[in-house]
Amino acid sequence: MTIHETHKHYFQVADLGDTDNDTDRSIVPSINSVLQNEGIDCVVDGDEMNSAGFTVWTYSDRDTIQEILQKNEIDLED
To answer: What is the count of structural domains for the chain?
Structure first.
């Protein structure tokens, strides 16, 4: 029997100026599209208090998510 454990990973984009989003648009749809296109089953939730922050709910580990985001030129805070 395989057990799938949901993980919660919080990330923050290093520079919102590098994205094509303005203050009225969220980064969540872009992040979600990148992860879905890479075959990651996830839910992305934006941080209401920090427009650069987002949480990824997924079965994948943090390193996998981080590698995919960086491969797709989404720079993250350390």
So the answer is: 1
In a domain, 41, yes or no: yes
CATH number of domain containing 13: 3.30.70
Does residue 3 carry a pLDDT above 70? no
* Rounded Cα–Cα distance for residues 20 and 7 (Å): 28
Q: How far is CA 2 from the centre of its chain?
A: 26
Strands 53-58 and 7-12, by their bridges, are antiparallel
Condensed to tens digits (0 to 9), the pLDDT of residues 17-56 reads 655 555 546 789 999 999 999 999 999 999 989 889 999 9
**For the whole model, what pTM was predicted?**
0.83
Answer whether residue 17 is part of any domain: yes
Place of tokens 């520079």: 15
